[in-house]
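Protocol step 4 of 6.
Sequence for DNA 3'-5' helicase (Streptomyces longwoodensis) entered exactly as in the expression construct, tag removed. Do not edit the line below.
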Amino acid sequence: MSASDRLASTTVPTLRPTALVPVEDWRPAGIDDLEPAAWEALRDTGNVAVVAGPGAGKTEFLAQRAAYLLQTGLCPWPQHILAISFKRDAAANLGRRVAARVPEHSSRFASMTFDAFTKGLVDRFAPALPPDWRMSHGYDIRTAPDREVSAFLNTIAFSAPRTLSGKVGFQPGRFVSDIVGGWNLPVSVPTDDEVDAVSYAGREWWRARYLRPGKAEVDFVMLNRLAELLVRAVPKIRRALRMTYPIVFVDEFQDTTSAQFSFLTSVFGEETAVTTVGDSKQRIMGWAGAVPEAVQRFTSTFDATTYRLAWNFRSSDALVELQHVIASKLDPTTVRATSKATAEDGHEPAVLWTFSGGDREARFIADWIARDIAGSDRKPADFALIARQKIKDFEPLFRARLAAHGIRVRNDDARVGKMTLQDLLKSETARLFVGLFRLAHQPRGLVAVWQEVSATLERVYGATDDEAAQQRVGEDLSDLTTRLRAWLHSHPPSTTSAADAVRRMLDLADSAALRRYVKATAPGEEFDLVTGAFEARLETVLGGAADWGVVLDEFESADAVVLLTTHRSKGLEYHTVFFLGIHGRQWWALGSDPREGTSTFFVGLSRAAQRLIFTTDRSERAGPISAFFAMLAEAGVPEIDQG
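Step 5 output, structure tokens:
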């Protein structure tokens, strides 16, 4: 029997509840303590809105709240906690955090994205949709570009009934998020034209993309609407969801869209304890349909209690003071956070550098980073280069200048296949693939990698609570990596294609089982999409590599200076942040939405733990961009001309 056959024969064990901890005896796991407001929010068993600013430790709070509810039995076995995040890496990070804090309960904590959850419901229960909405040939996922939305709106403007003439002039950029996302699908498709403009436009959109011959075409907003219709039209599904998930967490709630809020209300508006975490000052997804004042809307709709976290575990006191200046422009009532981070001596916490041009800027910063690394215990990964947009424009110069010092740059916004590099590297599937290759290349000394790969395979084969099954997984993992090692030895990277390497790894690793696991646990993460992106990334780093270890190091570029946009930086932190391009060319849209632009500025600068360096050029500072320079001056940030 092959390794994959033996792994596939592992049976799913029957889970048993563990001993409970009395509520009064429960203490946080893995940390010393929580701040007073966090303790109050954690112990509240009703609907809770936690307002948590940058560095407040919201992921840790959610992990501790999960541990509290699971270990004390307030979430009784066999019920689960559902955690919904907006980004895959945030969902994965929270899942890993809970598994580390309460491994004995990790199987009862489901962490996924909104899109993954709603897509999973549609995939599982589509036949239960009302007859008018049932699919006969399945669906493809495709997001319509703005030009296609504009063409559609022009078409219906001419074909609309006379009573709606002039009322269907919706903005193309907001039509899908606001109109399609805000329209609850009726059980039966309206057949007459005596409807309002929103219902008419929504119906025609669904007719054009979904209610047509052949395969339907949907995006994630439409999948959300179908999922909401399912739970509204089929009470058994709603009851089952509420019984399975009596407790729900929603992260980054300030970025909730109309569709997501509607879905949350329909499914979990009653008989469920919902905890949201968010910060209106970090609302940067308005362009994607985030509803205004989402936190306040939640507290009103769900009769929730609000708790405000006041500690900042990330940034030094000086940087917290700078953050407060910016935060006060977004919310004059905001209270200054208390820094719990230890400040470093010997450097300016925040400064504005002015440069004569891009080449001078890249050369100066690269030399500065190299000197700082040489004179400290810091690594390239401690530094981030953040910009509002067009991050690829910065990459060539910085890559070349840093390479002269032997320092890598990793552009997290780069496209590999159909994913961004950041999403690929955070994917559990991709992490498994990298781990298998690393264990095959280097059989000893990678204890942490072995543990992570083993844990993933134990989940794949349902062996997490069965010692005998876990032992079989370990034995077969050893056999798998031994066989893959022999293949790598006879296929050096200089003569091997990425496609062949990925194909061989999947043959040994039982791709069918992995595909089933991904579909069941991460329905928003398409197995073929991740595999294609993994292969594309591998192909770019194969050329000229001396051995597979070099290839894998380059693939991950874990020890690299990170280049990313402010939107991609959200939730991350770095010792030193260079906030590039504080000028009108990067912030050209600031005048059209000053609040969201200021929130984006706030998110980017709050990634820094110890040092924050803004960069600009000698271009005109009049107009909307002048507000940023005024804020920096108010905060006492010095400006230095670096030539």
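Step 6, annotate. Residues 1-15 have pLDDT under 50 and may be disordered.
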